[in-house]
């Protein structure tokens, strides 16, 4: 039996699956929570909006760490259901933080680079840089950060609440639609159809980061904090990101080359945001990883091109 224990929320999701695996591979005693895709064994069915259910799971499994991956992460879906999103992205982590603070459980809250404005010339952003989300998704995640940290502060448990900001993610998926990066593989396939005409952003800069790497960093952050007697001396906000930089159009170019498919029916759009579109995307939200480096945590990442070449080769076998 391991002497280290963790719970991962949203463990049936795109990121949560890899976070769960990272802890399991390092011989932690780990359980995940899910809802519609819970298996009842590794991933337990828990309604995170129900404080009684969350209380029961915390008291039964007594984790030292909770990694909160569950969230509404689609900017477009957020805009269509702002109230529902606020419940998921703000009130749920607030309640979870309160329950964790009462039990002296370390909570790692997964946030986003979209808490920053991403205006030209501002990046890379340090953890203490001024925030200013350009869309409602970023605002709800920023409000979630504040909710989590304020609950731990109110309980006198500063240092038990940690925010980890990450950029757009890619990695092993059950469906390409799980990721704004993976789904571009489907876009390249669709571009092979006669008459296809696809407009693709070639303006905003993105730093696709592998979910397996994020999982490893979550585990390393947890271990670092559990090994520190004075947790309040550690930074409450951390950031992790690959240094690989692409526009969505450049990713389509790469995927086309890897798959041996032309992308002449995909047209690059260099004009930036349409001012009439409700959801605005930032130009460049590149995250500095200095705070993680200062803690001695490995911030290396898998090579984006190499990972996708291996993935496509494996799929073709």
From TrEMBL:
GO CC term, one of those recorded = methionine adenosyltransferase complex
The RmlD-like substrate binding domain covers which part of the protein? 7-298
User: Record's InterPro entries?
Assistant: dTDP_dehydrorham_reduct (IPR005913), NAD(P)-bd_dom_sf (IPR036291), RmlD-like-bd (IPR029903)
GO MF entry, a single one: methionine adenosyltransferase regulator activity
In its UniProt record, which GO terms are filed under biological process? S-adenosylmethionine biosynthetic process
Matching entries from Gene3D superfamilies are given as:
NAD(P)-binding Rossmann-like Domain (3.40.50.720)
UniProt cross-references to PANTHER family, sorted A to Z: DTDP-4-DEHYDRORHAMNOSE REDUCTASE, METHIONINE ADENOSYLTRANSFERASE 2 SUBUNIT BETA
This one is known as RmlD-like substrate binding domain-containing protein
Tell me which species this is from: Bombardia bombarda
């Amino acid at each position: 039996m391991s002497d280290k224990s963790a719970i991962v929320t949203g463990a049936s999701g795109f990121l949560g699956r890899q976070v769960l695996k990272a802890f399991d591979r390092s011989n932690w005693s780990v359980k995940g929570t899910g809802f519609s895709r819970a298996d009842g064994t590794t991933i337990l069915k828990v309604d995170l909006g129900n404080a009684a259910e969350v209380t029961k799971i915390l008291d039964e499994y007594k984790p030292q760490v909770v990694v909160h991956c569950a969230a509404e992460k689609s900017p477009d879906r957020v805009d269509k259901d702002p109230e529902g999103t606020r419940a998921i992205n703000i009130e749920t982590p607030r309640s979870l933080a309160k329950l964790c603070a009462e039990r002296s459980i370390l909570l790692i809250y997964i946030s986003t680079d979209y808490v920053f404005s991403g205006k030209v010339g501002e990046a890379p952003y340090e953890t203490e840089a001024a925030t200013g989300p350009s869309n409602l998704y970023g605002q709800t995640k920023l409000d979630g950060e504040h909710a989590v940290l304020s609950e731990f502060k109110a309980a006198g448990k500063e240092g038990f609440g940690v925010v980890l900001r990450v950029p757009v993610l890619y990695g092993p998926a059950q469906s390409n639609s799980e990721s704004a990066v993976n789904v571009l593989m489907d876009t390249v396939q669709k571009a092979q159809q006669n008459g296809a005409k696809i407009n693709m952003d070639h303006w905003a800069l993105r730093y696709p980061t592998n979910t397996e790497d994020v999982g490893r960093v979550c585990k390393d952050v947890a271990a670092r904090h559990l090994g520190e007697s004075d947790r309040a001396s550690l930074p409450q906000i951390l950031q992790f990101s690959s240094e690989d930089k692409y526009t969505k159009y450049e990713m389509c170019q790469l995927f086309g080359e890897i798959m041996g498919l032309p992308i002449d029916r995909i047209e690059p759009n260099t004009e930036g945001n349409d001012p009439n579109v409700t959801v605005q995307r930032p130009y460049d939200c590149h995250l500095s990883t200095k705070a993680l480096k200062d803690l001695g945590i490995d911030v290396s990442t898998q090579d984006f091109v190499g990972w996708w070449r291996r993935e496509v080769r494996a799929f073709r076998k």
